[in-house]
Write a structure and sequence with these properties.
Number of strands: 9
Order of helices and strands: EHEHEHEHEHHHEHHEHEHEH
Distance between the termini: 53 Å
Largest sheet: 6 strands, mixed
Strand content: 5-15%
Shape: globular
Strand order of the largest sheet: 3-2-1-4-5-6
Helix content: 40-55%
């Protein structure tokens, strides 16, 4: 007897938005994608980001369709950025998503979310407090204040009922989550990802470092980034000292700014030393 399959029901199509840095995509975007894969196993998941964030997501979750900004760039000029995100909004509307969730906290992604809301798209998450028409009116009248554009507390509204916690100095109150900021943001602010954050990325370890690891411990030094704005000034001295102690040492520049190569090098390492910055999430 032939089984009749009902394919008349459209496949649920969900868009998740998290842009900012590549490390941010790793720490926030990746566990969200995996959470939605668990919650909506039959849905077609799309993820919007830009730059190397797309490479990382494709590497970590090949089944997810990754979308990027036109030309994979986020223009520094305010008006050019508005144009780029408006073009992106038109593409998103054409996809006919059943759900769109903006997890970003930057102005332009929130502007995009507000445009989609005003266009009656099924958007949730973070968005501008002003309507698109109100924003354009202020731009035209030259009354839009820089403080509004530059301060998330001023421009951001949210359908996440506990997003107000994001504006607090949360690390000073109560217990700090084991998963740090990503766990706080996704669980306490967005009300998502109730289980442990799944951020693992499967890559083949770097062969050269893997060979060296048979005889010595391998240490990576990543000091090219720093969230506090102060770079560690003694990387060369630290590298030399560790090598004199018998360690195999590599530095971030050895990855040639290739996110896949950096992940492969981390996979073949025993220890990463860095300041508070992106490489800690890759590790």
């Amino acid at each position: 007897m032939t089984e009749i399959v009902d394919d008349s029901q459209p496949i649920e199509k969900i868009l998740l938005i998290r842009m900012l840095s590549t490390a941010d995509v790793c720490a926030i975007g990746l566990p969200v994608v995996r959470y939605f894969q668990q919650q909506h196993p039959n849905a077609e998941l799309h993820f919007l980001t830009f730059g190397d964030g797309a490479k990382l997501m494709k590497l970590a979750v090949p089944s997810v369709k990754v979308q990027v900004l036109p030309n994979e760039q986020w223009p520094d000029d305010f008006f050019l950025a508005l144009e780029a995100f408006l073009a992106l909004a038109e593409d998103i509307v054409g996809e006919a998503y059943s759900q769109i969730i903006n997890l970003d906290t930057a102005f332009m992604p929130c502007f995009l979310a507000r445009f989609l809301k005003d266009a009656h798209e099924p958007i949730s998450g973070n968005l501008l407090s002003l309507s698109v028409q109100q924003l354009f009116d202020q731009v035209q009248k030259q009354t839009l204040k820089a403080d509004y554009v530059n301060s998330p507390q001023a421009f951001m509204d949210s359908t996440f009922t506990t997003m107000y916690k994001w504006h607090s100095q949360w690390w000073q109150y109560g217990e700090t989550p084991d998963g740090g900021y990503p766990e706080f943001y996704l669980k306490k602010c967005c009300g998502l990802v109730v289980d442990k954050l799944a951020t693992d990325i499967s890559v083949i370890p770097d062969k050269r470092l893997l060979k060296a690891q048979k005889n010595n411990k391998v240490v990576g030094l990543c000091f090219e980034q720093s969230e506090d704005g102060y770079l560690y000034p003694y990387q060369a001295e630290l590298k030399k000292s560790l090598e004199q102690l018998g360690f195999t040492v590599w530095v971030e520049q050895d990855s040639k700014a290739d996110i896949k190569l950096l992940l492969k090098m981390l996979a073949a390492s025993d220890l990463l030393v860095c300041k508070a910055a992106g490489p800690r999430w890759y590790a």
